[in-house]
């Protein structure tokens, strides 16, 4: 099985469409189609059924997927091990984190890295989804869940808190909710269920069943913007509140704690450029605690 063709096959299997796979791999759709056809010809097997809803793997496709994943794991392991021997303070380092962590912590870390090592190029990906470090979707990730994969190295960065906030204009119009009423008569800002299922069932320990979800977003920064705009009550990290004097904290005695972890694959721990970026991130968080 040709590895270049196998990469295309894996992407199609995971995404479900030829166009989506081409976008993930940053190639044109025609090339992706030719690669898939070449793989099917070499294996003398139909790997996908082409349906209106996308590409559905056949029985042969499922078998090929398992083999292709093993190829991918071996290729990724080799690349990580070679990177682990790299002592150059130059090249690309990929970071995955949320938008809010990026804005409040990672940008400062990148600034420090560039001041000392201008040949390091950081590729920053923000979102709530967890990147797969074993597939090299990122070299470093900041997560709020401690990993249990023995191949991953993790370091505790900080324990932060979230609290309930509303704008002064919202409180002037609607008043403050009463504890124990499950936000009766109030509008709430929440994450989309597809992004964080069940997240909005309660805010800071208060059930939300009597409240009205006015806005659903897929970004922490959008929750902040929606609360600042007076669209409703939201749960925000308390360290961000001082940047928004128009916000008022509701029920200050109530909060929810969360942890942040810096995670990398063990094979990259000795890569100089990855280590330099990781050290800068740790320094920024230590200064914030």
UniProtKB/TrEMBL annotation:
One GO MF term attached to the UniProt entry: DNA-binding transcription factor activity
InterPro entries from the UniProt entry: LysR-type_TF_proteobact-type (IPR058163), LysR_HTH_N (IPR000847), LysR_subst-bd (IPR005119), WH-like_DNA-bd_sf (IPR036388), WH_DNA-bd_sf (IPR036390)
Domain HTH lysR-type: 1-58
Keywords tagged on the record: DNA-binding, Transcription, Transcription regulation
GO terms of biological process kind: DNA-templated transcription
Coiled-coil region(s): none
Protein known as: HTH-type transcriptional regulator DmlR
Record-stated family: Belongs to the LysR transcriptional regulatory family.
Domain of life according to the entry: Bacteria
Pfam families: HTH_1 (PF00126), LysR_substrate (PF03466)
The keyword Transcription appears for this protein: yes
Organism: Achromobacter animicus
